[in-house]
Amino acid sequence: MRTDTVDERRVLVRGLSTSYLEAGVGPVLLLVHGNLTTFRSWRRIVAQFQSTHRVLAVSLPGYGGTSPQPDVELDSMVSFLADFLDVLSIDEAIVLGHSSGGLIAATFALRNPGRVTRLVLADSAGLGRAVTPFAVAAALAPTWVENVVISALLLPGGNIALALLGALQLRRPWRVSLRESVEQSLALQARTVLFTSYRTVRMAIGPAGQRPRYNIVDRLGELRMPTLVIWGVTDDVFPVWQAVRAVRKLPRGRLALLIGGGHIGFLDSHVEFIDFLSPFIRDELDVPPNEGDDDRVTERGW
């Protein structure tokens, strides 16, 4: 699989200089990254599907590839996604979101159901209150702690700490190439990216976990399009039971469990992730209406 055929491009969206990866022709597959990852994290996925799809991986505002905006609220990110597609004259797409990007993708689908042909939620935020205690601690920390931590991460060697932080979200970090690890940590070692990431955590998480206004569980029944939920069984950011419950509420949902996967399954369980994703986005996987059975769960791993 060659990644040198993936182009990095730039376009102006609502006045923001916006970076994105693009490759291939065909039905559009839009990839939305989460917190503490970047649009470049999707490079292997973009390369994988360029033979059958036009694959786009957009950088959200403030995450290095795109200019920051004052507002990191969910509404603003969702409207940015719509504007990005408008600028590229794209009417509809398969949308895949990871972590906080999953919440953005699902909310976009709720507001623009006619523009989302299929939806993929990978270890998504917004599907319950539970979240890792480390995120709660970060959200509740005084502002001076935030400033100290960010300043420390910007010092020489801070990229090593960021690489270790990323590795903690992986269950099999040895499966991630050195190039990907270095590229990821260097991309995150920027003041704007770190502040945007921290602001997002503070916005979405409170003392009891994920804030109720960002919980879309009760609206999943409105998502009529086929939806694939991919989750690492050992994800320690968002527990796997949130995925199980979500699929039961989705009218046309399918659950794919990465047995050895952590929070970033598309990196540390890449082969298994592709095995699940490929038939779904190629319309080869039937997703019948929910009849309350367990036949919609597939497991793969180790």
Provide a concise account of the structure shown.
Helices cover 37% and strands 19% of the residues. The protein is α/β, with parallel strands linked by helices and 302 residues long. A 9-stranded mixed beta sheet has the order 1-2-4-3-5-6-9-10-11, with helices on both faces.
Structural overview:
This protein has 302 residues and is α/β, with parallel strands linked by helices. The protein is 37% helix and 19% strand. It is built from eleven helices and eleven strands. It has helices spanning 43-49, 74-87, 100-111, 133-140, 143-153, 158-168, 178-188, 191-204, 241-249, 265-268, 270-281; strands at 7-13, 16-23, 28-32, 54-58, 93-98, 116-122, 205-206, 209-210, 227-232, 253-258, 297-300. It has a nine-stranded mixed β-sheet with strand order 1-2-4-3-5-6-9-10-11, with helices on both faces. A two-stranded antiparallel sheet has the order 7-8. The model has no long low-confidence stretch (mean pLDDT 87). InterPro entries: AB_hydrolase_1 (IPR000073), AB_hydrolase_fold (IPR029058), Carboxylesterase_BioH (IPR050228). The chain crosses the membrane at residues 119-142, 148-170. This is Alpha/beta hydrolase fold containing protein. It comes from Saccharothrix espanaensis (strain ATCC 51144 / DSM 44229 / JCM 9112 / NBRC 15066 / NRRL 15764).
